[in-house]
Amino acid sequence: MSLKLRLTVQSPRSFRLRLRYVPEDGVLPIPYPRAVLGGLLAIWGLLLAVPYLPSVGFTQATQPTLAVQGTVMATPDLPLPWPQSIAVDADRAVSARFRSRSTLDGILRGAGVSGSDLGNLLDVVTESINVRRIRPGQEYQLYFDAAKQLIGFRYQFERQTAWFVARRDAEWVATQVAIPIESRASYVSAEIADSLHRSLAQFAPSNAAVADLVAKIGDIYGWDVDFQYDLRYGDRLDLVVEERYVEGKFIGYGEILAAEFQVNGRTLPVVRFRDPDGIGSYFTPDGESLRRAFLRSPVKYSRISSRFSNRRVHPVTGVARAHRGVDYAADPGTPVQATADGVVLEARYGAEPGRYVKLRHGGSYSSIYMHLSRIADGVSPGSEVRQGQVLGYVGKTGNATGYHLHYGLLQGGNYVDPLRLQFPAADPVPSEHWGRFVAQRDDAMQRLQDGRATRAAAIAGGGL
Ligand SMILES: [Zn+2]
After folding, report:
1. Which of 42, 246, 271, 406 could form a disulfide with 444 if both were Cys (CB 3.0 to 4.6 A apart)?
2. Across the strands, what pairs with 140?
3. What's the pLDDT band for 126 if we cut at 50, 70, 90?
């Protein structure tokens, strides 16, 4: 038996303390009272929010902010243009929502504006803002100076656009303000308990965000990790991911900048490299690509109906013989993709394979795609194809019982199991980009290290 204490403070919305009592037969998490933490969090949030008031907005001043922010992303502090600067200088801000019976006149009158000043303000507001688009429930803000005089009115009509009406000298001026998306890097460290999805769920603010993060991780590690079979209890995933905010409100994840996956005894670090054209891809710290020269599967949205084997009973002939490929059951007409760049060797009809395409690839590989209903236009012997290019469509021509693709892969003329092969890697970082890569890599790895150090310090210094 053992007792574990765990403090997790890596993500803006995650602030968890877990007391874990671990009996021999499993893990029993006991939630720790969060009231104490709530107090700490509020202070923390306020401290962090102060320098961000301009962009965070008054309504979110007490929203908890990224705990490890100091160690990661440097969001440039841009001087605020007029009229937002007025909001920053405001002595007081009031946020409210339009109700079904509110009128602008009533709202502004209630804010203490009267006489010709009110008339002028209403003119400016109604000239600029399409008041018919205002719906009950939408928010507006009123800004006051120290003398309790109204100096600004804000109405946000889209997530990234707001109207700002502010007093400038003696006049009211309306300006449409574009609200920028702020990107912050966040360190996430997840210990795999049962599934990757559930392990990440404690960090992400919504189910959609978790699904998005899991998909991104799948894209990066899909070549190296079988998420169904490789994960073990206690495996660990550390990553630095961009989080996108509009005025302090989380709107979704951006790119994963760096990650390290400890899975089933292996450690797999990756960093994202953005080339001069702005195209991002993932490499190991040595500059090797994670993208393999072969796609794992030639058919999207399919299921494996028969695996590679050296001996099995054929469903049609009843004769025991090897199955030298993988069958993918899919709807008729589903596109079949070339799993790698290559040249078409054969594209024709045969009694056994039905309509089929055979490709020769670089190195020692060739691949074959059988039982097609149709071969795609332009796919004929001698023509070049690119990875992902559609070669034909799923059918059941030749010796096939149902709609499926039979996919075979040959290495040096021998059939090999496409699901077990360690494929050769795609091209490494081009030498002309090496300096750029190293700079980005070192920055990304540093962020990962900083995140880890902060986490370790949080655990050690938690006073618990
Ligand atoms: Zn087959």
Report:
1. 271
2. 96, 155
3. confident
Q: Which two tokens stand for residue 70?
A: 């100091």
Q: Alpha carbon of 314 to those of 19, 309, 317, 372: distances in Å?
A: 56, 11, 6, 19
For the domain with range 79-178, which CATH number is right: 3.40.50.720, 3.50.50.60, 2.60.40.10, 3.10.450.350?
3.10.450.350
- What residues flank ion ligand 1 with Cβ within 5 A? 327, 406
Tallying the residues shown for the chain, one arrives at: 464
Distance of CA 138 from the midpoint of ligand 1 (Å): 58
Give the fold, CATH level 3, of 303-416.
Glucose Permease (Domain IIA) (2.70.70)
How many angstroms does the Cα of residue 433 sit away from the middle of ligand 1? 43
351 C-alpha to ligand 1 centroid (Å): 14
Distance 189 CA to ligand 1 centre (A): 42
Using the predicted structure, report yes or no on whether residue 270 has a pLDDT greater than 90.
yes
Q: How far apart are CA 296 and CA 339, in angstroms?
A: 7
Where do the domains of the chain lie? 79-178, 303-416
Gap from CA of 323 to ligand 1 centroid (Å): 6
Q: 308 C-alpha vs ligand 1 centroid, how far in Å?
A: 8
- The reported pTM is 0.51
Sign of CA dihedral 114, 119, 125, 130: positive
Q: Ligand 1 center to residue 333 CA distance, Å?
A: 17
More confident residue, 61 or 356: 356
Range 210-218 average pLDDT: 85
Residue 16 has a pLDDT of: 33
pLDDT at 436: 96
The lowest-confidence range among 93-97, 197-201, 310-314 is 310-314
> What pLDDT does 377 receive?
95
In a 3-state reduction of DSSP, which class is residue 370?
strand
Kindly report the number of other CB atoms within 10 A of residue 400's CB atom: 19
